[in-house]
Amino acid sequence: MQIDWLTVAAQIVNFLVLVWLLQRFLYRPITDAMARREERIESRLSEAKAAREEVEAEASRLREQQRALEDSREEVLGEARQEAAALRDRLEDDIREEMEARRATWQDHLQDEREAFAAQLQERAGRQVIEIVGRVLEDYVGSDLASQLAGTFADRLAGLEAEDRDKLKQAAAHAEGPARVQSSVALKTASRSQITRAIHETVAPEIEVEYAEDADLLVGVRLTIGEQTVDWSATRFLNRLETTLDEVIEGSGRHRPRPAPATD
């Protein structure tokens, strides 16, 4: 039997190629996968070991804490009893102080009521005085008084302070309407001419002046130019008297002494 060496050589080459292919694409990937698996297993075992040690350490710490709590339980209960006793004493003191404060407040309230009643009587008396003065002045308002009002107004207008006069002049320079003069009684032609002449000489020589009556004015005259107003009347002085009376009553109520709190 004759051996075909070419075929044998081809068979050997094919075998070697097969072995190389198996080594390259089958055996090595399998060994690599097994190695990686072993590494993961080792890593998980290490993590499990570390976790177990951590759990054992935590359990030991909790046991220590439990022993410490049991040892200090009596001490904690003693402190709680002391705090409860201190709280009871403090609440009793607070209740006692609150009762004292309420009693002092009640006494202050009674004092305030008495002083408020006295202040109300003073205020009512003052209001009646102002009302009586107003009625007396109304009774004396007449036609003879109208001419005197015009003369008094002209004198007061001429005697205005420089600052007030400047304000009226500025208002007249920017006013879109006439100057308005209101009086408590109807003014005659001569009185109106006197007032108009005083306004032209003191404030603005060309401004128009119109006249009207105002029942709220009591023995007086009011001049309005734009947003500026000046007036001389008994109403003005009565209002000032009323304001002063209010301030006196308010001040007496604010500054009256408080009674000292009662003590046992």
UniProtKB/TrEMBL annotation:
The chain crosses the membrane at residues 6-27. It is a single-pass membrane protein. Keywords: ATP synthesis, Cell membrane, CF(0), Coiled coil, Hydrogen ion transport, Ion transport, Membrane, Transmembrane, Transmembrane helix, Transport. Residues 38-116 form a coiled coil. It comes from the Bacteria. It is found in: Cell membrane; Endomembrane system. The keyword Coiled coil applies. The keyword Ion transport applies. Belongs to the ATPase B chain family. F-type ATPases have 2 components, F(1) - the catalytic core - and F(0) - the membrane proton channel. F(1) has five subunits: alpha(3), beta(3), gamma(1), delta(1), epsilon(1). F(0) has three main subunits: a(1), b(2) and c(10-14). The alpha and beta chains form an alternating ring which encloses part of the gamma chain. F(1) is attached to F(0) by a central stalk formed by the gamma and epsilon chains, while a peripheral stalk is formed by the delta and b chains. F(1)F(0) ATP synthase produces ATP from ADP in the presence of a proton or sodium gradient. F-type ATPases consist of two structural domains, F(1) containing the extramembraneous catalytic core and F(0) containing the membrane proton channel, linked together by a central stalk and a peripheral stalk. During catalysis, ATP synthesis in the catalytic domain of F(1) is coupled via a rotary mechanism of the central stalk subunits to proton translocation. This is ATP synthase subunit b. It comes from Sinisalibacter lacisalsi. The lineage of its organism: Bacteria, Pseudomonadati, Pseudomonadota, Alphaproteobacteria, Rhodobacterales. The gene is atpF.
